[in-house]
Amino acid sequence: MSDDSYSREQRWRQVLYWRMFAATFRHHDLSPTLNRMHEDVLEELGLPEVLSHPAAGISTIVQRYPELEDEIENLLEDAEAAAEDNGDIDEDALRRAALYAKLLLNVFNPVPGHNTPVSADEYSQWGEDVGYFERACGLQPGELRDQERGASGEGGTGAGQGSGGGAGVGFSEEEMRRRLGATEDDLIERMELIELLEDDELAEEISPSMTVVEQILRDKNHLSDEAMERAKALVREYVEDVAEAMKITIEKTETGETDDSVPPKRTFRNLDIRRTVWENLVNWDPDDEKLYVDDLYFERNAEKTRPANIVVVMDQSGSMADSMVHCTILASIFAGMPHVDAHLIAYDTQAIDLSDYVDNPLDALLRTQLGGGTEGLRAIPLVEQKIREPSQTAVVWISDFYDFDREALFDRLEDINDSGAHLLPVGSITSSGYQSVDSWFKQQFDTLGTPLISGRIETLIKEIKEVVS
Asked: What is the DSSP string of 44-87?
């Protein structure tokens, strides 16, 4: 290859990559000159101009130019073979790079614009493009969007490990699944889920996820009977997958050793009567025959009674969807444990007792209503009805605690704690562990001796096991 030809192809490659970077960051119209150069390179490589159009789907391109189908589906294999031969940057390598760049953009950066509405047709096209991407990577159709298959580690041919001429993805199948999931969540957030659920074929393409469940919970009152059945199937599949993962976590989680650095709660059940009497004997008044106590001493009850009663209270205001789903499932799991009586209460500006559905998280979730304000006082009377034996009751209160009347709510929660019940205040529970909680409440709970539990579900599971296992 001459210096001139190498320089030309080097320039072509730069145009292809700069054009892909511009499209990746959603700057399609940033440089008309770059777009024209991209079209010129495509023409030189014998590729159709439609490859430069952001909205053009791979299926549309293949339909118009059927000779490209085999080339697209064998991109990775051809690139690896070329790399083994010489790895030169020739026209064939650049042709593969141009096709692969289009495929990557369609799969990982579809429908440019963060706030651009997504239609059902665009979502369907994205699913078809993912299918072409899977075949190009040597995977079976649907394999990258099949979370169960991906979690089991089955299938796959090491996609992402090849590189020839720009045809390598550069990350593992697990990472590709994660990125595809995030892309799909973004598409669903920007479209009317109702439109998808009304179409049987499109509904079958939807991958169950937290985003899908949240959208269904918000729109459930507007679904037709047929769409509602499809929605239930999606929620059921997601709930079952999360429940199975939680059961494994619960089985593996150890309660751990007592942290002696944390003082025991100053409640009657923890009063060390023997030491209190001994330390205050100097205050015995023989005339009155009374012992005057200056100091109280507390201890952890080594034989503490395990609560047979769990009351899970969840904030169902608009920001709490993730927490609601996880905690509803968690309550149902603990409800199935021997000698545990579980209750479920949800609230926003009203409170609802879902205890009759605690063993069926799908039914419980469909009876919640996302949105509204946060008025925890509404739930207090229902909670108090469930506390029959305080020492045998754990109250798990899940909220971000941005409450309408925080002082009054805290006073009532303090009463519950002082009654002898095990109060477990929990910040927003999410799969990532991120939580935004009212700092005033965090400080008050610390002072009370009931520190706010971290937002990770694993931490909550461990804390609940401490009092029920």
From this structure: HTT--GGGG-TT--HHHHHHH-GGGHHHHHTHHHHHHHHHHHT-
C-alpha separations of 235 from 242, 291, 371, 403 in Å: 11, 62, 19, 29
Write down the pTM of the prediction: 0.53
Calculate ∠ Cα 258-264-267, nearest 5°: 140
Q: Checking phi first, is residue 402 left (phi over 0); if not, alpha (psi -120 to 50) or beta?
A: beta
How far is the C-alpha of 171 from the C-alpha of 164, rounded, in Å? 15
The better pLDDT of the pair 328, 86 is held by 328
- Domain borders along the chain are 3-191, 259-299, 306-468
In this structure, which topology does domain 306-468 adopt according to CATH? Rossmann fold (3.40.50)
Burial 298-334 (b: 16+ CB within 10 A, else e): beeeeeeeebbbbbbbbbbbebbbbbbbbbbbbbbbb
Looking up tokens 């409640």 gives 267
Q: 148 vs 61, which has greater pLDDT?
A: 61
Report CA Rg, the chain: 30
d(CA 285, CA 288): 6
pLDDT above 70: residue 163: no
